[in-house]
Amino acid sequence: MSAAPGWYPQGDGSQRYWSGSEWTEHRAPATSAAVVPAAMAPTGPYAGGVTQFVAPKNPALSLLGSFFIPGLGQLMNGDTGKGIGMFVGYVFSFLLMFVLVGFLTAPAIWIWGMIDAYQSAQRWNLQRGIVS
Q: Do both 20 and 77 map to the same domain?
């Protein structure tokens, strides 16, 4: 049983045609793969030929969400655990106002939540190559 007719690679990188019974004089030149320097290689959300469409996070909207409800901005950014922790910490600090400690911790958690929500949205966008 012989091999099927077709082009077969040769030792020098070129190809030669097999008729099914003998080698012919038909040859194809060696093909070279295009080499892309690392500095020119694609990066970001469209690298590797895979198109990803992602909606950017809005840092200002995340900050505004945390202004009204502590932890909401983190939830909007996809940081569920951090958002729930921020909300529970704020509620606990609010309860501590009866012993005067909450007057210090509640505003600190509220302000930290707004700053973190804004920076988390910017960081999320930057990791995906989106300038915000």
A: no
> 0.85 exceeded by the pTM?
no
Number of H helices, E strands in the chain: 4, 3
Query: Do 122 and 70 share a domain, yes or no?
Result: yes
Residue keyed to tokens 């099914």 = 20
Q: Is the dihedral of CA 90, 94, 99, 103 positive or negative?
A: positive
115: number of CA atoms within 13 Å, CB side?
A: 6
Residue type present at position 55: A
Same domain, 70 and 112: yes
The verdict on residue 71 lying in a domain is yes
The domain in which residue 112 lies consists of 59-127
* pLDDT tens digits, one per residue of 97-125: 888 889 999 999 999 999 999 999 999 99
85 three-class SS: helix
Tokens standing for 52? 């990803």
> Is 39 among the domain residues?
no
